[in-house]
Specification:
This protein is of the alpha/beta class. It has ten helices and 14 strands. The termini are far apart.
């Protein structure tokens, strides 16, 4: 298992076994996935010294964990439980803008593809509401990762359950972690948890959220995205980033009352899965190094663009040297204030 002596960044999230039907009608069956790997890839495009925190069941492929080692990423914070956990994730993309998560049988039939036996019994995703007090098998505990992880100085929390997001920031701050960014989970970022979210956000360095989740959280209280960002910034987190998929990002700097609009870097999307997570990894790299939310968002944008061009989370790490920097320079001229 890899060990990273100069650990600067921590990422906490989930690992999945992906079953994907791409916009081109191709199937990628039982391949590595999950927010943890995609955010790691988005970060590793720019920086090294990364440690991962997550949980998997005993049947999770060991060769996938070994590939993390081969990429020079520290995985000692990934805990393998002595139980089986269903980590399968299915997504079909009739087109790059549309993601469908249920009825996998119908999607394979639509494309004339044989249905994989390993996807038999796949449960249709139903909206789950988190508990404020009860942990799940995937809830992150502080003893899941080694004490040396607290020597890192920056962390991103991918979508996780409410308890994980409640407990992890205070645990990380016991060490040297001062930069903490968070992407909320739809399992709690909804009106039921309206009064809980302000406490969760207070003290975060940046809050990174999709437009879809934001609309679900506010549900008619506010309809303008900039007003939503301003409301969230009032909870004690100055930097709010709204991820808008192929339309790029909105960046709101509450301290300076500045609004930025960033278009998505134009690429041919082979697989949209994980682009939002890769954005968060790139953002963490930029914000930790420069404390500039606009530059951080630009770096996240480029990380997302490189993830879109392949299927495997680590595809982007085999890109030509200098590609990310060249794309960053090209994108900077296309930003404007709102």
């Amino acid at each position: 298992m890899s060990y990273t002596p100069n650990l600067h960044y921590l990422l906490a999230g989930t690992l999945r076994r992906n079953y994907l039907l791409t916009p081109q009608g191709k199937a990628a069956l039982d391949v590595p996935g999950g927010s943890l790997l995609y955010s790691a890839a988005g970060l590793a495009i720019w920086e090294q010294g990364i440690g991962l925190i997550g949980r998997v069941g005993e049947t999770y492929p060991q060769e996938w964990l070994k590939e993390i080692d081969q990429r020079g990423i520290d995985r000692r914070g990934i805990r393998t439980l002595t139980e089986e956990i269903d980590l399968r994730y299915f997504a079909a993309y009739p087109d790059p803008e549309t993601r469908e998560l249920d009825n996998p049988v119908s999607h394979f039939a639509r494309l004339g593809l044989p249905f994989p036996k390993t996807l038999l019994g796949y449960p249709s995703p139903t909206p789950q509401m988190d508990s404020r007090q009860r942990a799940t098998p995937l809830t992150i505990r502080q003893n899941d990762f080694p004490a040396e992880y607290l020597n890192a100085t920056a962390a991103h929390l991918c979508p996780l359950d409410f308890l994980s997001h409640t407990l992890l920031p205070s645990a990380l701050r016991q060490g040297h972690v001062r930069t903490i960014t968070l992407d909320p989970s739809e399992s709690y970022f909804n009106p039921v948890f309206w009064d809980d979210v302000p406490v969760l956000m207070n003290g975060l360095s940046a809050f990174l959220c999709s437009e879809e989740k934001l609309n679900n959280f506010f549900q008619g209280r506010v309809t303008d995205l900039w007003e939503m960002a301003e409301t969230l910034a009032g909870y004690g987190c100055d930097i709010i980033v709204i991820k808008r998929g192929s339309r790029g990002q909105y960046v709101y700097d509450g301290a300076n009352h500045t609004r930025w609009v960033i278009p998505a870097y134009p690429v041919q999307a082979l697989d949209p899965t994980g682009a939002g997570d890769a954005f968060c990894g790139g953002f963490l790299a930029g914000y930790h190094d420069h404390f500039d939310p606009l530059l951080a968002a630009l770096m996240g944008n480029i990380s997302a663009s490189m993830i879109l061009e392949g299927i495997h989370p680590f595809y982007s790490l085999d890109a030509l040297p200098g590609l990310a920097k060249a794309r960053l320079e090209a994108l900077q001229d296309r930003v404007h204030k709102a």
